[in-house]
Amino acid sequence: MHTALCDRLGIEFPIFAFSHCRDVVAAVSEAGGFAVLGALGFTAEELETELCWIDAHVGDRPYGVDVVMPSTREQQDGGDSKELARKLSGLIPAGHRAFAARLLEEHGVPALPEGERARELIGWIDATAKSQVQTALGHPRVRLVASALGTPPPEVIAEVKASGRLTAALSGSVRHDLAHHEAGVDVIIAQGYEGGAHTGDVASMVLWPEVIDAVAPTPVLAAGGIGTGRQIAAALAMGAEGVWTGSLWLLVEEADLQPAQRASYLHAGTGDTVRSRSFTGKPNRMLRNAWTDAWEAPDAPEPLGMPLQYMATAEAVSRTSRYANRSQDVAFNAGGQVVGLLDEVRSTRDVIYSLVEDYFEAVDRLQGLAP
Ligand SMILES: Cc1cc2nc3c(=O)[nH]c(=O)nc-3n(C[C@H](O)[C@H](O)[C@H](O)COP(=O)(O)O)c2cc1C
Hints:
This protein is of the alpha/beta class. 43% of the residues lie in helices and 13% in strands. The protein has helices at residues 4-9, 22-30, 44-57, 73-76, 81-89, 94-106, 126-137, 154-162, 174-182, 204-215, 229-238, 259-267, 290-296, 308-322, 348-369; strands spanning 15-19, 34-38, 63-67, 142-147, 166-171, 187-191, 197-198, 220-223, 242-245, 273-276, 284-287. The strands form two sheets. The protein has an eight-stranded parallel beta barrel with strand order 1-2-3-4-5-6-8-9, surrounded by six helices. A three-stranded antiparallel sheet has the order 7-11-10, covered by helices on one side. Helix 2 (22-30) runs parallel beside helix 3. The longest helix has 22 residues, at 348-369. The structure holds flavin mononucleotide.
């Protein structure tokens, strides 16, 4: 199970784990995998706090940071972020906010307490992304900086590489992965259709070998749908240098989910997710519920692009997460089809060890087939 990438990063297993939760990050890296903290949603100052905490809990293990680097002109508009938020807010048709508000009202989701406001313009603008990268580079244990939704700008690639770290970028299509490759990204993450959150429309089984061949010899991490060691064996058999997982870490003891949201993931079957543009503006896989159905209905407004759609729905995200136990039918529960294979909450260490065990059983099975 030890690939060349394990040596480059100083890790035991080529199991990469994406999480927004620092406890999960520390636990995965401690157990011999490579955890990557999602920076989206944190200001640079908050990210600094999270990284200091991880540094204090991860010993001498490495980890990574994932930043949403903007790709559209609106998002790259530099300058004052309050001014940018005001400008962008003016582009949102009133109908979108009203539609979201009506849905919440119909489903009895309480308003935010007096004085509390949702943060509408999170991570995905240029100024935020650049300051998150600077923050990450201030932490020596951060060994990889990943770009969530596009090829990182050339100056970011150059700076991360010059600091001795690796760059990585996700994509769900061979065209985008080739663009990452041509820009000089060190590690390509090929995420299939079944994966959690933003995802393309080609399934992992077809996408992985296509990307592996297209960008060779650049290392590829296989993402989208992985929840067992058998699948890791399949990915490595195809030529991937590791796997990149996300949904799996929603159901570990260390994850900071509210009980109602955890129950939603636990009860979901493999057919209970949908790719929907209703929260972020880009196709994002999440648990299907009354919210996702409503945005598909003929009378629903057409979702806006990124970041406008999230600005129109940020209040819904805040309210449904604050009152999770009363709002699961309209909550944003990003997750991939693999949630249907997960039916218990275990410690991160247990999950890593059973992935490794299951991987070796699969390899033994294959060896048993050899003449
Ligand atoms: C709740 C959730 C949030 C996610 N947020 C991000 C993100 O902010 N940035 C990113 O690069 N990927 C994000 N992802 C995608 C993961 O990095 C990963 O590619 C994906 O989960 C892999 O598919 P899987 O869920 O089937 O394992 C998220 C995934 C989940 C489940």
